[in-house]
Amino acid sequence: MINRSLIRIKTVQILYSYLLTRNDFKLAAAPDPADSSHDRQFAYSVYLDLIILLLKLSSMPLGPQSGIRLPEDAGLKKNRIGKALRDDVSIIELIGSRRNRLNLFDVCLEDVFNSILQSSVYKDYRRKRKLEMANDAEFWSVVFSTIIRKHKGIERVLRRDEKFSHSGFDAGVNMLVETLSSFDDTHVSYIHAKTALNKSLSMAYDLYHSLLILPVLLTRLQAQRLDNAKNKYLPTHEDLNPNLRFVDNLFVKAIEDCSELEDYISENPDSDPSNWRDSDLMLNGILDAITASDLYKEYMETAGGDFGADAHFWREIMRNIVIPSDQLAECLEGKSVYWNDDLDIMSTFALKTIRRSYATPEGEDSSDLPESYGKIVLLPKFMNEDDEIFGMKLFEYVVENREVYRSYIDRFVRSNEWDSERLAFMDVVIMLTAIAEICKFPSIPALVSINEYLEIANDYSTAKSGKFINGMLVSIVNMLNDECQINKPL
Question: Angle, to 10 degrees, between the axis of helix 89-96 and the axis of helix 38-57?
């Protein structure tokens, strides 16, 4: 079973990779004034002015200096590129540096707006039933490549610049189109990150099945060793008459008879350890450690026929030899970058599954065996539907609200005279995720969330991160409670 602790870890891992490389728009680089031509400098100036124009056409407020307000239009209102531009920190900085040009195109803005509404590209856009971000970016790319490029009012305004040239104007438009096209790449990376989160959760569930099938593979390997010993040159009496206690283990036979486990392994080949690279080396190394152990020697001296004793033996072998083994760790690392991190939690559930196969209810006579005795009952992937969607919702909330949540962090960083730019990025991601959970999941107590993310910080960030993050989150939770944004008193 994949619990919320593991889901939180995986969400933080995927968010770290995604946010570290995320860049909503690839902005054109500013030209070097000393090395660039007048055309190049003019083109870049046009490029920046056109970004502001797009924001105004999208009815995005740019502050008190934004003079004219365009009429509302349902078609353009649902276009999300304007909002995405306005939410990009780099765009905000650019706009801030050009406040003297915010009203540059106001003289022709309404005419440009009406030209767009009357165009065929706009009518085609409105006819689309399901619009993706790629459609929104494509719409504005066509608008600027055709309508804006040819609009006389836009050209008259730009001609006031002494560096004006048609080639510079065209180059500025092309730069904007390239920036708009780059957004689709970011959207694709967002989809890839969500896919990676789902895949990593599925692979954790694969690992759970892998651990349960390992006793079968190790038993088969031992049976093969015994058979080879019988057929070697001059076998001993012991070779010809081996102790079959280990290979006749009733718990292992129950695993082999578990059709649900067999079907899962068949449908998910990555969960079959025999398919892993260097699996033979791993299985032989682990089996050597088992047969050399006191657990094995004591077990081999007992009588067979007791399922509980057989299952308990394998639970102890898994807990003390298999799961901590270096051979397993090396194989897991080669198979998935996440599996060694998943091992602690998924091995707990594998051991729980083994325990359930022979445990009797507390306080009841062991002779009154439950129906589950002697059977392998697999745990579900998620405990409930809420857990199934928890990770994806958490991921989405962080991405959608990261600027707001980051402002909470920066507020308390500044109040303590720390440099927000020098925060460990993993600390930032952990706090963003914790804040998202605290704000968006009202049924989870704030203290539970804080403690969960402190554990993640202790395992994945710096030595001092836990104390720092604890203080930050407590301060943020108190602030949110004081402002009535949440109702989660500590």
Answer: 110
Residue with tokens 């991405």: 399
What is the distance, to the nearest Å, from the Cα of residue 383 to the centroid of all Cα atoms in its chain?
A: 20
What is the per-residue pLDDT across 274-315, written as a single tens digit (0 to 9) for each? Answer: 999 999 999 999 999 999 999 999 999 999 899 999 999 999
- Please tell me the distance from the alpha carbon of residue 108 to that of residue 111, in angstroms, as a whole number: 5
DSSP class of residue 416 equals: T
Hey, what are 205's tokens?
Answer: 């569930």
CA angle 120, 86, 90 (to 5 degrees): 120
Q: Which two tokens stand for residue 117?
A: 């509404």
Contact criterion met (CB below 8 Å) for 247 and 226: yes
DSSP state of 146: I
Give residue for tokens 């602690």.
Answer: 344
pTM for this predicted structure = 0.72
Half-sphere exposure of 131 (CA within 13 A, CB side): 18
List, in order, residues 6 or more apart from 483 with CB less than 8 Å away.
none
In sequence order, what are the residues at sequence separation of 6 or more whose Cβ sits closer than 8 angstroms to the Cβ of residue 415?
none
Per-position DSSP letters for 189-225, written without gaps between them: HHHHHHHHHHHHHHHHHHHHHHHHHHHHHHHHHHHHH
Amino acid at 327: Q
- Counting Cβ atoms within 10 Å, is residue 325 exposed (0-12), middle (13-18) or buried (19+)? middle
pLDDT per residue over 164-193, tens digit each? Answer: 999 999 999 999 999 888 776 666 788 889
Both tokens assigned to 439? 């704000």
Residue labelled with tokens 């359930």: 356
Q: Indicate the average pLDDT of the chain.
A: 89
* Length, in residues, of the chain: 490
DSSP for 15-45 reads HHHHHHH--SS-PPPPPPTTTS-HHHHHHHH
